[in-house]
Prior knowledge:
By secondary structure, chain A is of the alpha+beta class.
Amino acid sequence: MLRWLLGWFDSLRGRIAIALLIGLTVQFIGSDIIFERIEAARLERARAQRLADWLSFADEFAGTRPDAFERMTKLWQPDLIVRRSLAAVPEGGVRSDGEARQVRQLILEARPQLRHHDVRATAEGRDLVGSMHLANGDWLVFRAEDYFTFSSQLQRFAVSGFLLLLCVTFIVLLFGRMVGRPLARIAKAASRVGWDEAVPVDVNGPREVRQVAIAFGRMQSRLMEQVADRMQSMAAMSHDLRTPLARMRLNISAVGDAEARAAFEQDVEEMEGFVSSILDYLRGDEAEAEQRVDVASIVMTVVDEARDRSENAIYAGPHRLEAVTRPLKLKRLVRNIVQNATRHADNACVTLTQGKHDIHIVVTDEGQGIPDTDLELVFEPFRRLENARKRHIGGSGLGLTSARRLVERLGGTITLANRPQSCGLEVTIRLPLVKV
Amino acid sequence: MTGPSIPRLSALGPQTILIVDDDIGMRRALHRILRSNGFRCLLAEDGAAMRSVLAEARVDLILLDVMMPGESGFDLCRDLRIRDDNPVPIIMISARGEQTDLVIGLELGADDYIAKPFGEGELLARVRAMLRRSRTPVAEPARTRSRFLRFDGWTVDLGQRDLFTPTGARVELSGAEFDLLLALIEHPQRVIGRDALLEMSRARIGNASDRTIDVHICRLRRKLGDEEKRDTIRTVRGFGYIFTRPVEQA
């Protein structure tokens, strides 16, 4: 939960939401304070007006009947309690109570005739207590209950305010998604560039994001062009090399010295491997129909091929495993991985197993493996690790690149991992098991 | 036009091989190897040259490159078979070594193919096997061009060189395995010696020995699900193998 929340805060839309939330809250509170001020002034004036009205009424009404005070109190309950008093209470006069003094001022402003009645007032908690000299000589003491309560607007609107914030958050999240999504898509595309064909990037979202998308697209196509150029020249070279290689192969037998002949053979083989791996890579895109095939027979054929070349390869798995796939691509893929293993580790063990929804082809070797940091790098075109370079093992640096391409055409995945205790590499190919 | 049944007198002298390839280096290399192994060679760099050679000389075998500018090897092969009705054995030299190339070539009437790049050993094995086959008509069995053969629910597509399981899945076979299977099912319920098998499987098996035949039979059995019982392809001890299931054409 915490992780999810942190991740959320980390995202673009999360941050936009937070920024907006804080801004809105400040704005909300600020405007509340201002409005409260204005409203309070208005209310105070109105209240003072009412009190002034009452007091002048009391002055007129006080002498009319004996129970006048009781009646008045009853009439105005619970706001105003009035009683007769002989002395002006509180006798200390109006304390230096700013608010009460202001109230008195307001009362006098509302009813200027009350100036002659020696109106005094003081705050007692939330009540306003005061006295007034009546025209008939009596003193009137009044207590206006809850005169100073201003119910906070903030509290009153807390629920609706909260709801408003919720709405805003929701909307921001939605908009944030509009901003964040294209960016996230660009990031995703960027992480795939390099070992695959062009990744389409949608140009949408806000202007800056669109600019990023366009720039990214351009950068990508430039990169792809470079790789394509390289491929093109490699392909041209490979095509041109094939015929002389075929000639050389035939002419090797004319070499008298057996040692030299073996060396020539080795060289020609290496070059042939190089050429065919490039052509394989280029052929990875060729269309091929899906077909119901015996996957086991394909894997076995590849392993047998290796054995015929006196390589140390073994197969462990069923003798039949039927699935719908593209057989030529699958064969090239398995051959590619097995060759990789025999080339770098001089041995390969291929296991084939059927899962519930997929087929696993695992090729393990007993070589040195590759550094963990390079596990992803080796899929890049023309990437050859230092170790292989040093050992002068052939290869074009396209083997795993075309393997990954083939796997994708087959709708599967390929992963590399070092076996525990660094006793070799394990390549796992997962293919969807489509049964018809 | 040379009579279709006449040019089988080759046992009398060195056999003549016509090399058709546009690449001069390739022609020279092939020429050198074949000549030093006792064959007589004629060279042609394109279709026109090939036709003029064929009009003048008796040829026992044509080595025909597929990829040539102008008329391709496929075109020439089809013309020879259909227009000229010439039965001279043809080995196609396929540029790519692709299954499709080989299937097209065989459907057009070529007798065998060899994929570039190939070495001297492979070339000589193919050439010798082909010449031997064309000399002994026995090797050409009842090839009534029915396209499919069936046994035990399994189907063999002769045109596409494919094998299908009873459930309809294509089984991947190496070239040698398919040739072996073909040799066996074209003579069902007959004992076939290892030597005959080697020959009939078109020498696609490099440095062939009896042992390698056994290895390929073992692989074939595994793919046919016959490894445990060894019942479909039975071993005849000390001699060869027998395909026990009845084979029907379809």
